Amino acid sequence: MRRSRSGRRITTRTLLAHLLIDVAALTIVVYFAGGGTSPLITLYLPLIAVGATILPARLAGTLAAVSIGCYTLASLIHRDVPIQDHERAFQMHLVGMWMIFVLSAAIIAWFVARISAAIQRRDAALAQAREDALSYERVVALGNLAAGAAHELATPLATMAVLAGELGRNPQLPTDAGADISLMRTQLEECKRIIARFAARAGSPRAEAAEGVPLQQWISQLIDRWCLQRPSVAPRVDLQGERPGPRIAIDATLEQALLNLFNNAADASLSEVAIDAHWAAEELRLEVLDRGPGIAPEIGQRLGCDPVTTRGEGHGFGVVLAQSAIERVGGSLAFSRRHDGGTAVQVRLPLASIAAG
What pLDDT does 209 receive? Predict the structure, then answer.
């Protein structure tokens, strides 16, 4: 018991030694209880059953052989119990056999049930580990594709920026097109900044701002960045919590995960998007609400596990990446249908896992 509580590894030979001690103790008891005529002698069977369950075949065979030898020895050499009333002694023997059978059955059933539960837990853990490994491989593959896409997009974006600049300087350009050209140039510059951030943060997602930024500032800046990328969206924002909030380290993958969720909400209902953030000392709860068509049950079961999309131009990778990034820091992501229409996305993040320092 002390060895298991101390966390030290228990070997099969140690288990065999303990079971042999139990066999020896039982043999001594049986010797003084009448040997083979005592109901206690059947208690060798639970010990053999336990040994066969937890020991390798060779050691289990050793335990069985020693138990058989002790059984035989106790039957041949023992101290007789004086009997005055043979009929009463026979009745007590039958009662004793019944009690020993009940005890043996209870021990074997309890032990086998615990072993079975442990095997089921191990199988579930192995299945979860395999699923996590597959999910990790998928995320790594998507990350590699994203890195390659960002690298390849740099050249066409630069070309478009040059063309937009030339169009903006064209004196023959209609007046009403000037605002559109200006917006296009702003979006192209934002795309170039996004690619530059990807390159700067590659391989070190939490390298910048090691001293951390206040939580409220981080959320506000993230929403402002998103609004710059989606100028047609005017979200309702509600930030509640201690001001300015605990200091957190900037995590590029987590930021991108939240941006993906914001974009999904805007794609679902461009006219009405709400972002509610509430934080306390230990947890940040962020909710993204939209008034879109909602999520079908068959789609909701696959969100975060497989790339799924309800839009023809989408690929469904955003939620998979968001799920991976949020779970990586110990958080959770959940989707639900709103009673009055739309989708509610709940994000929970433990602040201890993203705290600065």
Answer: 43
In the predicted model, what is the mean pLDDT of the chain?
Answer: 80
Residue 246, CB half-sphere, CA atoms under 13 Å: how many?
A: 18
| CA–CA gap between residue 75 and residue 107 (Å, rounded) | 24
**What is the model's pLDDT at position 152?**
67
The SS3 call for residue 246 is coil
Q: Would the pLDDT of 84 be above 60?
A: yes
Which three-class secondary structure string do you get for the chain?
CHHHHCCCCCCHHHHHHHHHHHHHHHHHHHHHCCHHHCHHHHHHHHHHHHHHHHCCHHHHHHHHHHHHHHHHHHHHCCCCCCCCCHHHHHHHHHHHHHHHHHHHHHHHHHHHHHHHHHHHHHHHHHHHHHHHHHHHHHHHHHHHHHHHHHHHHHHHHHHHHHHHHHHHCCCCCCHHHHHHHHHHHHHHHHHHHHHHHHHHHCCCCCCCCCCCEEHHHHHHHHHHHHHHHCCCCCCEEEEECCCCCCEECCCHHHHHHHHHHHHHHHHHCCCCEEEEEEECCCEEEEEEEECCCCCCHHHHCCCCCCCCCCCCCCCCHHHHHHHHHHHHCCCEEEEEECCCCCEEEEEEEEHHHHECC
Tokens matching residue 278 = 């509430």
195 vs 255, which has greater pLDDT?
255
Closest CA to 168 of 143, 190, 147, 185: 185
